[in-house]
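Protocol check, entry for the methods section draft. Step 1: assemble the input record (protein sequence plus ligand SMILES). Step 2: submit for complex structure prediction. Step 3: store the structure tokens unaltered in the notebook. Ligand used here: CDI. Step 1 record:
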Amino acid sequence: MIRVGQGFDVHQLVEGRPCIIGGVTIPYEKGLLGHSDADVLLHTISDAVLGALGLGDIGKHFPDTDPAYKDADSLKLLQHIWQLVKERGYKLGNIDSTIIAQRPKMAPYIPQMVEVIANVLEAEERSQVNVKATTTEQLGFTGRGEGIAAQSVVCLVKVML
Ligand SMILES: Nc1ccn([C@@H]2O[C@H](COP(=O)(O)O)[C@@H](O)[C@H]2O)c(=O)n1
Ligand SMILES: C[C@@]1(CO)OP(=O)(O)OP(=O)(O)OC[C@H]1O
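Step 3, stored output:
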């Protein structure tokens, strides 16, 4: 049995914040604003996984009104969500994500992101985790560099015992 889920998220780019995407800190003049570390890519993966399980979304599990999650490490939030997957007897089929950003250039950091995500989601092969990036050709809020968006689709597979 398989379950699929998708996630979409946006965070504003501001000065004075680190730019953490896919668990990787990217050197850039601005960073993402949020209650947590605002890791837009990991948030979409979290939402996709929760969606696949029919468990709502990241804000339901880690409310942005709870001081416990102020500047929270999104990798830890995803680790917690992955436990829910394992408890329900699922493993990763594959995940495909897209980061939508005019800048910074993501390509040099994507292999590191894949490594981080593959470790948390306990991927058996690197090809189960795919991360892409695209600009919006300078159009819209991403094109103007006001924010970064991301989206992810995940497939979970029931473990056969
Ligand atoms: N922030 C980004 C955006 C894009 N890339 C890479 O550049 C390629 C071309 O982007 P287009 O928007 O013109 O399609 C894209 O395929 C990515 O490989 C990137 O590294 N960082
Ligand atoms: C991750 C959480 C944690 O409080 O905060 P934010 O960084 O604001 O991120 P968002 O994508 O709005 O999801 C909501 C929250 O769960």
